[in-house]
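Key result, reporting period 2: structure in, sequence out.
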């Protein structure tokens, strides 16, 4: 996590929530017919370290239908909430995965200005990938400034 000048933001709470691999959230409002996973809560919290780094080990969220328009599907994504050092640095956003064909049809992704969409798409990171266990993606959150991560999506 970085501030508007590219400096690390340490000791900051980062929360995530996401659908399970079948595309279902573990809460009562989700009425998608996909199965719930009793071993997956879909939420996580971490505190950034001195270098502004955080890490979550999770599953790839599933795509799911939503009632926005005919045959509407959400691309795979993870929701983020960041509580920065003061009220002005609260950030709520979504992280998308590279190459998802549903980006072109998702009104939330499309609502991000074209020049800022790369700031809501994670980058695959082979160097951090754990062989035979987990793929890795990097997602730098920037709290404010010209390169800020788009919020409210």
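The corresponding designed sequence is given below.
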């Amino acid at each position: 996590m970085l501030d508007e000048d590219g400096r690390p933001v340490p000791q900051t709470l980062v929360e995530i929530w996401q659908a399970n691999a079948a595309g279902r959230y573990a809460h009562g409002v989700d009425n998608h017919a996909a199965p719930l996973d009793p071993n997956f809560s879909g939420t996580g919290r971490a505190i950034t370290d001195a270098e502004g780094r955080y890490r979550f080990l999770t599953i790839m969220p599933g795509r799911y239908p939503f009632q926005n328009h005919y045959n509407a599907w959400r691309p795979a994504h993870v929701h983020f909430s960041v509580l920065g050092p003061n009220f002005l640095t609260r950030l709520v956003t979504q992280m998308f995965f590279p190459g998802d064909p549903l980006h072109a049809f998702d009104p939330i992704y499309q609502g991000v200005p074209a020049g800022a969409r790369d700031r809501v798409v994670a980058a695959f990171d082979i160097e951090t990938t754990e062989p035979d266990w987990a793929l890795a993606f990097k997602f730098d959150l920037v709290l404010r400034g010209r390169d800020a991560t788009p919020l409210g999506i």
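The chain has one helix and eight strands. The longest strand covers residues 77-83. This case is discussed further under Risks and Mitigation.
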